[in-house]
Design brief:
The chain is α/β, with parallel strands linked by helices. A seven-stranded parallel β-sheet has the order 3-2-1-5-6-7-8, sandwiched between helices. A six-stranded parallel β-sheet has the order 12-10-9-13-14-15, sandwiched between helices. The radius of gyration is 22 Å and the shape is globular. It contains 16 helices and 15 strands. 40% of the residues lie in helices and 16% in strands. It folds into two domains: 238 residues, Glycogen Phosphorylase B (Rossmann fold, 3-Layer(aba) Sandwich); 182 residues, Rossmann fold.
Length: 431
C-alpha cells in the first residue's frame, strides 16, 4: 500500500464537525490502497470528545498524537476544564481576540514544533504524499516545513478560506499582510490544492500560481452511518425540528428561537405542537436565550453527543434545521452538516443568507431557504411546515434520497486519484 501522512490537529477521539472529513478519508482511502499516518494533537487539549469515531479507523492507521501549546488547550488547563458540550461565550470570545493579535495564523501555532518533532519518527517509513487539512491553518504550515524535509509532495486541503483573511478580521494592516504572505507561500509550495466549495475553488485559483491546479472535493456523508434508514414521518402530531451541530457566537439559533416565540405568541394553541431539539456543542449565549424567551418547554438542549446519536436525532426529526453565519465573509461556505442532512433524507429548513448553501438547497429541492435573522419569514415557514405535517404532505414536498456524488466513498476515490497523480509526478530526492 502507498503511505499518506495526514496533518490534522483535529482528529478522533476529538469530536465535532471538523474531524468528520479527515476521519472518513482515512476510512475509505484504505480501500483505495493508501494506508495513513495521522499527525494530530492530543484529545485532552480540546473541548469535545467522541470515542466512537475511532471505530472508523482501519487497522493500518497509525496515529501520532502530540502535545500542543495551543491557546484553547492552555486556557482549559489553567481552568482545569474537562471535555464537555458548552464553552463560555465571553471566555472564548476574549481568547479569540487575544489570538488575533499575537498568534498567527491561529491559536494552534504553538503545535508546530511538537508536530515537526513527532514527524521525525517517520524517517524509517517515509510517506509517499503529505496531506494537510485546515483549519487550523497551522496544519498547512506544518506540512510546508515537512515537505522539503522529507522530499515528498504535499497536497493542501482548504475546508475553509485562510482564517485571517476571511473568517476573522486581522486587527491591523500588518497582520493582514502577514496572513496573505503565509497563504501565498502555502499555495505556491503545495503540489496540489483542494477546496470544498466552488466559491472557495475560484478564490484559491485567483491566488495560487498558474501551474497549481485547485481541485473541488466537497464535504459529504458516509452511507454506512445511515444504514438503518429514516424513520417514517406520519401525518398529524407534533412537528419535530432538530439542529445538530455546533452553535457559536457567529452561528446562532437566535433567529429561529425568536421566530418560535413569535409563533406561540400569535398562535398559543400551537404550543406543544412544535418542538425544537438542539443537539451539539454550543456557546453559552444560546442557553441564555432559550431561558430569556421562555422556551424551555419546547426547546430541548441536548448538548454534544456521539456522532451516531446525532444521526439518530436527525432520523427521528420531521425537519432538519441548517444554520449558517450571517456575515458575507461566509457566503461561499457550505456547512458540512448539509450533506449529512441529505443522508438522513429529511426536509431541510435552511436558515442561511444568499450563498452557495442556499443555492444547493434550492437546486436539490430538498428544503426551504429563509434568511437566518428574518424572524417573520422564519415564523411563516414554521407555520407552513406544521400545516404540511398535519396534512401528510411534508415528505412529498421535498426531494430526498441517496446522492452518490456527496457520499464519502466516492469522494475518497477522487482524493486517492489526486494523491496518486501527485506522487507520480514528483521527482523524489534524498531527504
Amino acid at each position: 500500500m502507498r503511505h499518506l501522512l495526514l496533518v490534522s490537529h483535529f482528529f478522533p477521539p476529538m469530536g465535532g464537525g471538523g474531524v468528520q472529513r479527515v476521519t472518513k478519508w482515512v476510512k475509505y482511502l484504505d480501500t483505495h490502497g493508501w494506508r495513513t499516518t495521522v499527525l494530530c494533537g492530543r484529545a485532552e487539549d480540546y473541548w469535545m470528545r467522541d470515542e466512537s469515531l475511532l471505530s472508523d479507523l482501519p487497522q493500518s492507521t497509525r496515529v501520532l498524537r502530540t502535545a500542543a501549546a495551543s491557546g484553547l488547550g492552555i486556557l482549559r488547563r489553567l481552568r482545569a476544564d474537562t471535555p464537555g458540550d458548552k464553552r463560555s461565550s465571553r471566555g472564548f470570545g476574549g481568547l479569540r481576540r487575544v489570538s488575533e493579535w499575537f498568534l498567527i495564523p491561529d491559536s494552534y501555532i504553538g503545535w508546530l514544533p511538537f508536530a515537526l518533532r513527532a514527524a521525525e519518527s517517520l524517517q524509517e517509513d517515509p510517506p509517499d504524499v503529505i496531506l494537510s487539512s485546515g483549519p487550523p491553518d497551522t496544519n498547512h504550515l506544518v506540512a510546508l516545513r515537512l515537505g522539503p524535509r522529507m522530499a515528498r509532495p504535499w497536497v493542501a486541503d482548504f475546508r475553509d478560506p485562510w482564517v485571517g483573511l476571511h473568517l476573522l478580521r486581522p486587527p491591523t494592516a500588518w497582520h493582514r499582510r502577514r496572513h496573505a504572505a503565509l497563504e501565498r507561500r502555502v499555495l505556491a509550495r503545495a503540489n496540489g490544492v483542494v477546496a470544498t466549495t466552488t466559491w472557495l475553488q475560484d478564490l484559491l485559483r485567483q491566488r495560487a500560481p498558474a501551474n497549481v491546479r485547485v481541485h473541488l472535493i466537497r464535504n459529504g456523508y458516509d452511507p454506512e452511518d445511515f444504514t438503518l434508514g429514516a424513520a417514517e414521518s406520519r401525518p398529524g402530531g407534533t412537528l419535530r425540528l432538530a439542529h445538530t451541530g455546533m452553535l457559536t457566537l457567529t452561528r446562532s439559533a437566535a433567529g429561529l428561537l425568536r421566530a418560535l416565540q413569535l409563533v406561540f405568541a400569535r398562535h398559543p394553541e400551537l404550543r406543544g405542537q412544535i418542538e425544537l431539539e438542539l443537539v451539539g456543542a454550543r456557546e453559552s449565549d444560546n442557553d441564555e436565550l432559550v431561558r430569556n424567551l421562555g422556551l424551555q418547554d419546547c426547546v430541548h438542549v441536548r448538548g454534544y453527543v456521539a456522532h451516531a446519536a446525532a444521526i439518530a436525532s436527525m432520523r427521528q426529526a420531521d425537519v432538519l434545521v441548517l444554520l449558517k453565519h450571517t456575515s458575507e465573509r461566509y457566503a461561499g461556505l457550505v456547512p458540512g452538516k448539509l450533506y449529512e442532512y441529505l443522508g438522513a433524507e429529511r426536509p431541510i429548513l435552511a436558515l442561511v443568507p444568499e450563498s452557495e448553501a442556499a443555492t444547493l438547497v434550492r437546486e436539490l429541492g430538498c428544503g426551504i431557504v429563509v434568511g437566518p435573522t428574518d424572524t417573520e419569514a422564519i415564523a411563516s415557514a414554521l407555520l407552513d411546515l406544521h400545516a404540511a405535517k398535519q396534512s401528510g404532505a411534508l415528505a412529498q414536498r421535498f426531494r430526498s434520497g441517496a446522492l452518490p456524488r456527496f457520499q464519502r466513498p466516492a469522494q475518497a476515490g477522487e482524493l486517492a486519484s489526486l494523491l496518486a497523480d501527485v506522487a507520480a509526478s514528483h521527482p523524489r530526492s534524498a531527504a
